[in-house]
Amino acid sequence: MNTNLFLKKNFYLLNFFKIRKVFFIFFFILVFLSLLVIINKKLTFGIDFTGGIFLEIYSESDFNHKNIKKILEKEFPIKNISTFKNNTMTISIIEKNLQNKQKISQKILKKIKSIENKNFYIKKNEYIGPLIGKNSLNRSILAIIFSIFSVFFYIYVRFELKTAISILYSLLNNITIILGIFAFFKIPIDINTISSFMVIVGYSLNDNIIVSDRIRENFKFYKNCNSKNFIVSIKQVSKRTILTSLTTVFTLMILIIFGSFFLRKFSFLLIFGIFIGTVNSIYVIPFILYKLKLKKQDFKKKFL
Length: 304
Fold this sequence. Notes:
This protein is an alpha+beta fold. The chain has helices spanning 3-9, 14-18, 20-41, 47-50, 65-75, 101-116, 130-158, 161-184, 191-218, 227-258, 261-291, and strands at 52-59, 78-84, 88-93, 120-128.
């Protein structure tokens, strides 16, 4: 049975196979725009990486956090202000001198009290030195680079070079697009963000390997670079991949609704990363492998 006849008998796959180019071009443009945003607007880093003072301030009654934020940002070198439901706010301040920690903290507390005319208390007052922050940033970048290229090496050894290239492209896609969103909305990147990146890399890798492995297995039944192999492989794994992603998203939605600010930020990032990773694994990975003319002979015999 030739490919055209196969597609006619399985018409629900026809559009699925035809629009693979649309998704590839869409993601290519998205990555290009993300790079432009990162270059022009640049990334914003939290005090975890730049150094500064972290304050957690509590009040016994409700307060107007928008008004406080507006006034504080005019008078102090504020990096970020976040508020929570339990009358608590966190404030990140750019400050490289440890000796000014207590002085600045008390000034901010006094200012907040004068704005709201209420009692506020400092629950946490931490200082991160610029050198420690810079070292943390360098180590985080190295950790991400090392993890990605370790994955590339593993896929190359376990499968072959073309599969490794397609999966590396997919992972870089995910991270670049997410970084572009962070740069566009000026969202600070901190340790929690790096943790999210590592989780997204692991989750996307799992989906990518499942799709690639099914294509490899189906070379037992289809010769050379047969489009039918790619269509059948995607059909076999797409339902499982989508349902797994949706199950994870539903769990993360619960964290967004009931979790703290940090959990909500972590969950939003994961949901977006899962969406990009799922679409990449179903549309982009097979497209690249098809264009690279992946063949049965490309794989080592002991793995087939």
